[in-house]
Structure formats: C-alpha cells, structure tokens
Amino acid sequence: MDPATKERFKWKFYRLAVLLNIIILLVAIGVIAFFRAPQDFRIPALVVLVLAAATMSIYFWRKYRETKVWLMEQE
Question: What are the residue ranges in the chain where pLDDT is below 70?
Fold first, then answer.
C-alpha cells in the first residue's frame, strides 16, 4: 500500500472507530437514563437514545461494508 492509500485507510478506520464508540455511549447513556431519569422522562429518553444508536448503527454498518470493499480492492 502506498503512503497516500495508507493515510486514507487510517482516516476511514478512525471514522469507523469514532462511530462505534458513539453507538456504545448512546446505548450506555440510554440504560443509565432509564434508571436515573425522572419518572416522566425515562421511556422517552430511552427511546430517543436507542433510536439514535440504531440510526448510527445502520450508518456505521454501511460505511464498514464500503471500507471493507475498498480495502479488498487495494490488495
């Protein structure tokens, strides 16, 4: 792999790592919010955070597949 391609892969990998960390944090905050939030906000907070995590997961999975195909083409 040439240096330019290696740099591009590094940024693609970095983006995927950050997205995955955000998804994990959203789910964790959703669980904490379910137990710690005031009674009126428990379910809506959980739903919003889990829906955000699900949306990010779909985006993450699409980008992961694109990056995997791109990486296989480089070899």
Answer: none
The two three-digit tokens of residue 59, written as one number: 């985006």
CB 34 within 8 A of CB 45: yes
**pLDDT reported for residue 1:** 76
Q: Which of 50, 56, 65 is nearest to 19 (CA)?
A: 56
Cβ-Cβ contacts under 8 Å for 59 (sequence gap 6 or more): 19
Query: Taking all residues of the chain, what is their mean pLDDT, rounded to a whole number?
Result: 94
Angle at 30 between CA 27 and CA 35, to 5 degrees: 135
Helix (H, G, I), strand (E, B) or coil at 72: helix
* Nearest-angstrom CA–CA distance, 4 and 22: 27
Residue with token string 């959703």: 30
What global pTM score does this model have? 0.86
